[in-house]
Write a structure and sequence with these properties.
158 residues, alpha+beta, seven-stranded mixed β-sheet, 4 helices, 7 strands
Length: 158
């Protein structure tokens, strides 16, 4: 059974979320937390995300498949002329790629953002990451290319 939950630092699922965040950073950004134990990395990530949550307009999501945590998303709302949904971390464990789980999590994050007035989605990634195929499959387009790829997607017409 597939289940997606919005969570906060007081949720029962918080530790599962932090474990997957740690896995994400160790796989995709290994130089960020060098010379730290996994426990220390989890503490640092948890502390950072708790602080970001206190700032407001932050959405944390965890996906479970048959009670196993398999994916996470971290998004926040930026307010300029419009409300922009920014995706900070979006991670599906490798063994669950190409099963529609990322798309389901994506739709959940988009719905959250739209319910709070977001009209545009933005995210950044490195050029050679396999995730670029995923973002393009969702209709996001590259709007900036250096030093990282910046994607955007309009959610509603103005």
């Amino acid at each position: 059974m597939l289940r997606i939950e919005p969570i906060d630092p007081q949720s029962k699922a918080w530790q599962d979320f932090i474990v997957l965040c740690c896995e994400y950073f160790q796989r995709h950004w290994p130089t960020i937390y060098t010379n730290n134990s996994e426990t220390k990395i989890q503490e640092l990530i948890s502390s950072d995300l708790k602080q970001r949550f206190k700032q407001g307009d932050r959405g944390f999501f965890i996906m479970y498949l048959n009670d196993e945590p398999v994916a996470i998303a971290n998004a926040w709302l930026g307010k300029d002329d419009d409300i922009i949904l920014n995706v900070a971390e979006f991670y599906v464990r490798d063994e669950y790629h190409r099963h529609g789980l990322g798309k389901a999590l994506w739709q959940n994050v988009i719905s959250w953002g739209q319910s709070l007035g977001a009209v545009l989605v933005e995210l950044e990634t490195d050029e050679l990451k396999p995730a670029n195929f995923f973002w393009k499959s969702l209709g996001l387009t590259v709007t900036h290319t250096a030093p990282r790829l910046r994607y955007s997607l309009t959610l509603v017409n103005k």
